[in-house]
Design brief:
Layout lengths: L1 E14 L9 E8 L2 E8 L1 E3 L9 H4 L11 E6 L3 H5 L9 E4 L7 E13 L3 E10 L4 H11 L8 E7 L5 E6 L1 H8 L6 E2 L16 E8 L6 H10 L17 E5 L2 E5 L3 E7 L4 H8 L1 H32 L3 H4 L4 H22 L8 H13 L2 H69 L8 H39 L1
Parallel strand pairs: 12-15
Antiparallel strand pairs: 1-8, 1-11, 1-12, 2-3, 4-5, 5-7, 6-7, 6-9, 7-8, 9-10, 13-14, 14-15
Helix pairs in contact: 7-9, 7-10, 7-11, 9-11, 11-12
């Protein structure tokens, strides 16, 4: 039934750093006969995807050397397959056992890619070829592969150790995922429960291509099942038209998309030239430039989710913290990252071919990019308001600190001057008065006592002036503390 059967699982994650991706090595032991050899192998290698039929502005998004580049692409080093426990040969079949023990599937795990965006959002892709004959078998295989969290899901195959020796190798998909993501430092999926990799709430996104030997009458039902992420046992209703989820660029080819799935189902025709195109060129285009558009839309979606989560982490305690300067930097950094994301990650027209543009618009519609964008803009507007409030608070704090510094300087100058001038007056005031009179004073010289009293009064006035300056200083300090608390 299937001439081509291709599934690319897409795992969205939030990462810490990308500095180690190109240099990260895996250590492993290679056994040959009775000899065991320790080896080191590079895990990821930089690569490029073909971007035929895409506009230059689109192509440059994936050029790591271009200023407008936003994504680095890596492919799993073939030599690292052994270190990961995978078969040397990509075409070797693996048995995939899952929680439905009576329904083990057979697959081929071809390769993996890593798309690392500048927004600290990345996507791990796993290319899988399900070895199945019917859509029901395909649906079951994809359904259980998407359950990464399950400990009961296992890959196994026979590995030759020598001429007459072999061993059964078993590995879990989630452990494989954790290993290949180590170069990104700490990583989180988009589940809300806890940090780390869980994939308990959100299943991987699915991108696929099925080329049939002939048309099928149940194409709508089969596409709906794959796009919904459910098995046939869920008895989904298929009465309603799914025309809003599909586009048909060619008579024998149908694209379908949902919020987490994008697939193309095509069939062979009586025209050998058409068949050759869908078996070769279209298949290559689908895995390359069609997928690049899909990953761009997924990045738009998940980057907005990440930024919204980051902004939502700002709470009242953060806004009211003492270090208003640090908070302004944090908010300004979020605003800058968000604005750069809008400028660099959005495309209105990705291709010069209309049917490719229609494919892109279908993805944006089904991933509800406009709704995410509207919510994100509202959040960004609120963040901008917080930023303005923090700037006002910072400016007021700066003004009060300057005023307090000036007041401290005035008090210091006034106090030093007063001490210098007043100290001899008080200490020698009576002597000064006698010298002015030119004789020893008695009680009858009351006017001269008034002169002495005036000198003392002046000292008191100076003291009060100093005290008032301290009161003004304390008032400014209280205002400053009130702004900072």
């Amino acid at each position: 039934m299937f001439t081509k059967n291709f599934i690319r699982m897409v795992l969205p994650i939030k990462y810490e750093t990308k500095d180690l991706v190109e240099t990260f090595n895996l250590n492993y032991e290679k056994t040959k006969g009775d000899q065991t050899e320790k080896k080191t192998v590079k895990l990821w290698e930089r690569t490029q995807f073909s971007s035929t039929h895409l506009l230059k502005t689109t192509k440059l998004k994936f050029d790591h050397e271009a200023k407008s580049g936003i994504c680095d692409i890596y492919v799993l080093n073939d030599a690292a397959r052994v270190a990961l426990g995978l078969p040397n040969n990509q075409n070797q079949s693996l048995s995939f056992s899952h929680r439905k023990k009576d329904k083990a599937s057979t697959i081929k795990l071809n390769t993996m890619h890593l798309f690392v965006f500048e927004t600290n959002v990345a996507f791990l892709t796993i290319d899988i070829e399900p070895v199945v004959k019917t859509f029901d078998e395909l649906n079951d295989t994809v359904y259980f592969l998407s359950e990464l969290k399950s400990d009961k899901h296992m890959f196994s195959y026979e590995r030759k150790l020598g001429k007459d020796k072999s061993e059964t190798v078993s590995l879990k998909l989630i452990e494989l995922v954790e290993t290949v993501l180590k170069p990104l430092g700490h990583v989180d999926d988009f589940d809300a429960n806890a940090s780390g990799l869980h994939f308990s709430d959100n299943k991987p996104d699915i991108f696929g291509y099925q080329l049939l030997t002939k048309p099928t009458e149940n194409i709508d039902k089969n596409m709906n099942l794959i796009m919904s992420g459910f098995r046939d046992s869920y008895l989904l209703s298929h009465h309603e038209s799914a025309s809003h989820q599909t586009i048909k660029p060619f008579e024998n080819s149908l694209w379908g998309a949902s919020h987490n799935t994008c697939i193309n189902v095509s069939h062979l025709t009586s025209n050998p030239e058409t068949n050759a195109f869908f078996e070769d060129a279209f298949y290559v285009n689908l895995k390359n430039h069609y997928f690049l558009l899909y990953i761009l839309v997924l990045h738009q979606k998940y980057a907005m989710i990440k930024f919204t989560e980051d902004i939502a982490e700002i709470n009242e305690v953060d806004i009211d913290q003492k270090d208003v300067y640090e908070m302004v930097k944090k908010v300004r950094r979020l605003i800058k990252q968000s604005e750069l994301f809008y400028i660099r990650s959005y495309l209105e027209i990705p291709s010069y071919m209309d049917h490719i543009n229609q494919f892109y618009y279908l993805l944006q519609r089904q991933c509800e990019i406009s709704k995410f964008s509207s919510e994100f803009k509202d959040t960004l507007s609120a963040l901008d308001h917080i930023h303005s409030s923090l700037l006002d608070k910072r400016n007021e704090v700066t003004r009060l600190k300057g005023e307090l510094k000036k007041k401290n300087r005035d008090i210091l100058i006034f106090a030093v001057t007063t001490i210098i001038a007043l100290n001899p007056m008080i200490r020698n005031g009576w002597d000064v008065t006698e010298r002015v009179a030119g004789r020893t004073l008695t009680l009858k010289d009351w006017p001269l006592y008034w002169l002495y009293a005036l000198i003392i009064t002046y000292g008191v006035i100076v003291f009060i002036g100093v005290r008032n300056r301290f009161i003004d200083k304390n008032a400014i300090r209280d205002k400053l503390e009130e702004k900072e608390l």
